[in-house]
Specification:
Number of strands of chain A: 0
Number of helices of chain C: 7
Largest interface: A-C, 75 and 84 residues
Number of strands of chain C: 0
Shape of chain C: globular
Chains: A mainly alpha, B mainly alpha, C mainly alpha
Oligomer: heterotrimer
Helix content of chain C: over 70%
Number of helices of chain A: 3
Distance between the termini of chain A: 54 Å
Largest sheet of chain A: none
Helix content of chain A: 55-70%
Distance between the termini of chain C: 56 Å
Order of helices and strands of chain A: HHH
Radius of gyration of chain C: 20 Å
Chain lengths: ~110, ~425, ~170
């Protein structure tokens, strides 16, 4: 409990992921849904960086060693993707808000039969 | 038993004194706290001095006198302003969001003060030397945009909202140009034997020391253009003239801090001056050689070192001489007696500090800090000079300059710097 | 510098992140949610520092807290909030959502309980003296293609966001 291992970080990442999933599935406000998606991406990033730190302690013949920073590179790309996705998502939100004057996603039902 | 504990404490406190690392890198928490207190105190004194200097210098540029009444030549005016701001009524708009209204000045002040953790006043005179020093400074100073957006939104009134939107759009746009200029300078740190650069602030100045020239003169004129881009972008980043449309009184009644009064407003004001000093520190560290004295290799050798080591004492004695000269010129009226005595006392204190700085033991330690502070003070004077000289930019002109002029210029300088650096590494020193 | 009081700092930042996450999904006011998310992101940057990844921590502060959240706050300010604060906050299928999240949580607990012994006791303490240089070597060496594709992605995102938000195309 007191010695912090990789598992602690993974459990924290899983808890954040769950919070993000609950936010996406239960909220009506689009902006808060987008922010919950950012929470999910952050949880994934935490996992990646925790595993990168774990691999740095593994011997080099197994693929580890001090140069095994692949998880950190991946997390940089995830942050970049999150920025792109947030920008486009908010652009769509603005375009939709201009038409329908509401920010609730269950009123985005123009194609519903 | 008590003696050995005291002995251990004293030994821990003294263990850092002959170290060659910053307190943070050496892991010495006591000295790190001492350095934090020193930086915080120095920053507060600098902000107070900036307040007085700005009003006096602007006034003299506009052929008037400025504050003359409160102390001798208005020297106590900042203290009077501070007392007034502390005693003012604390107003919050009725429909404003209380929590966000309260948090906004805190975030701006925190962002402006936290960057000083990595500012290097000397090779060991920083609180800590992070591996990602310049990245940390740029990142934390971009958090102040959040505080401004929150301040504008929480005031629940249209002047602050428009002011906050404009101010934050301007800051975000010029951060891009700043980043490109910073990358050009960081590229120049990698022109050494191993071909590895560094992002740490102390490492950047040591790279300039190893290469023997300040980066502003490197690959002439590329270093100069990069410095120019950063110098323009940093004025826009801190919302100062001529880019102060978002908070100018004739345009938007005071922009995002319209609804703030008293102590909260003084927090914004404190954060603005601290941010000015912070970005000036970045410019001094990256291009002007940080704590290095001028002409490190052109005028090298022990006699020149000794001449340059006399500068701190001479500067303070010069200020003391100005004080005494103005004391003599004070009106010889009994009502002015207290002011005359005050000014003479202030001059005496400055002269005493100057004389102390001539002592070799103090002079050796104070060299780096003095040169760094002198360069940052030069930048502060430039800020005030810009405010007194340039007319204000209109907002669309401002954004146009940030995106259409500075950004392509920054990209061009970056590509040219990288090409010249590659040629130098491969062809001249293969 | 040797790490000091690691469990205390880990639990502190983990608690800040979890409280921030809970505040994000439960606040009525979108601005309060955004502020809670900023706090959670800054706590995550501190956790990255504890995992000896200072470059990723710096990128997180600059991009996420200083860029993406500013974008969110701008859009929240442009989209009117007062009316949406008075409406119903949770949608009509929240029960199914909670059940699905509970199932997912159960799956996580099962996986982590079963695989608990894979991870060794010690976590390596690599001094982060040249983390940025190593990241740069990998990023511009082995992952150069992904880097270029990411820049293309950002270009597409810029054009897409501008086209979406314009009034007349």
């Amino acid at each position: 409990m007191l010695h912090i291992t990789t598992l602690h970080y993974l459990i924290l990442g899983a808890a954040l992921f769950l919070l993000g999933v609950i936010g996406v599935l239960t909220r009506r406000n689009v902006v808060i849904v987008l922010m919950s998606i950012e929470l999910i991406l952050n949880a994934v990033n935490l996992n990646l960086v925790a595993f990168s730190h774990y691999w740095q302690g593994m011997p080099a013949r197994l693929g580890g060693g001090p140069l095994a920073l692949h998880g950190q590179i991946f997390s940089i790309f995830v942050i970049t993707d999150a920025a792109a996705e947030a920008a486009v998502g908010l652009g769509i939100l603005i375009a939709f808000f201009r038409n329908k004057e509401t920010v609730n996603i269950d009123e985005v039902n123009l194609l519903k039969w | 038993m008590g003696g050995s504990v005291m002995g251990q404490i004293i030994q821990y406190i003294q263990s850092y004194l002959s170290s060659d690392k910053t307190p943070g890198s050496a892991g010495n928490m006591f000295w790190a706290l001492v350095y934090i207190m020193l930086v915080f105190g120095g920053l507060s004194v600098a902000v107070i001095a900036m307040n007085w200097l700005e009003r006096k210098i602007l006034a003299h540029m506009q052929v008037r006198l400025g504050p003359m009444r409160v102390g001798p030549h208005g020297l106590l005016q900042p203290i009077a302003d501070a007392i007034k701001l502390l005693l003012k009524e604390d107003i919050m708009p009725a429909e404003a969001d209380g929590f966000v209204f309260w948090m906004a000045p805190l975030i701006v002040v925190l962002a402006a003060f936290t960057v000083f953790v990595v500012v290097p006043f000397g090779p060991t005179h920083a609180v800590t030397d992070m591996n990602i020093g310049i990245l940390f400074m740029l990142g934390v100073s971009s958090l102040s945009v959040l505080g401004i957006v929150m301040a504008g939104w929480a005031s629940n009134s249209h002047y602050p909202l428009i002011g906050a939107l404009r101010s934050s759009a301007q800051m975000v746009s010029y951060e891009v140009a700043m980043g490109l200029a910073v990358v050009s300078a960081i590229l120049m740190t990698s022109l050494n034997a191993t071909g590895t650069g560094t992002l740490s602030m102390i490492g950047i100045v040591q790279a300039q020391q190893a290469q023997g020239e300040w980066f502003i003169f490197k690959f002439f004129p590329l270093g100069l253009i990069a410095f120019f881009i950063f110098a323009v972008a940093m004025v826009a980043e801190t919302n100062r003239a001529p880019f102060d449309l978002a908070e100018a009184e004739s345009e938007l009644t005071a922009g995002f801090h319209t609804e703030y009064s008293g102590f909260r407003w003084s927090l914004f004001f404190l954060a603005e001056y601290s941010a000015m000093i912070a970005v000036s520190s970045i410019a001094v560290t990256l291009w002007l050689g940080g704590w290095l004295r001028p002409f490190p290799n052109l005028l090298s050798g022990t006699p020149w070192d000794q001449i340059f080591s006399l500068f701190p004492g001479v500067t303070f004695l010069f200020f003391a001489a100005i004080c005494f000269y103005n004391t003599v010129r004070m009106p010889k009226h009994p009502l002015f007696r207290i002011q005359t005595i005050g000014l003479a006392g202030f001059g005496a204190v400055l002269g005493l500090i100057g004389l102390v700085l001539f002592v070799p033991a103090v002079s050796i330690r104070i060299q780096d800090i003095f040169w760094f502070s002198a360069k940052v003070a030069g930048f502060m004077y430039l800020y005030i000079w810009y405010r007194g000289t340039f007319p204000r930019y209109r907002f669309d002109q401002l954004m146009q300059m940030g995106w259409k002029v500075l950004l392509p210029l920054g990209l061009g300088v970056l590509i040219l710097t990288a090409s010249v650096a590659l040629l130098q590494q491969k062809i001249w020193h293969p | 510098m040797a790490p000091v009081a690691t469990p205390f700092f880990f639990y502190l930042f983990a608690a800040i992140m979890l409280i921030g996450g809970i505040l994000v999904i439960t606040r009525k006011n979108a601005v309060h949610s955004a502020l809670a998310l900023i706090v959670a992101l800054l706590a995550q940057a501190s956790l990255y520092l504890m995992l000896y990844a200072p470059f990723v921590a710096g990128v997180q502060i600059i991009l996420y807290a200083g860029g993406i959240m500013v974008l969110f706050l701008f859009v929240i300010m442009l989209v009117s909030i007062e009316r949406s604060m008075k409406e119903r906050q949770f949608n009509s299928q929240w029960v199914v959502g909670i059940i699905a999240a509970t199932a997912l949580g159960g799956l996580f607990i099962a996986v982590y309980a079963k695989g608990r012994d894979i991870f060794p006791d010690g976590v390596s303490t690599i001094m982060e003296g040249d983390n940025t240089q190593k990241v740069a070597n990998l990023l511009y060496g082995q992952y150069m293609f992904a880097f270029e594709i990411a820049s293309l992605l950002l270009l597409v995102a810029i054009i897409g966001a501008v086209v979406m938000a314009k009034k007349r195309i």
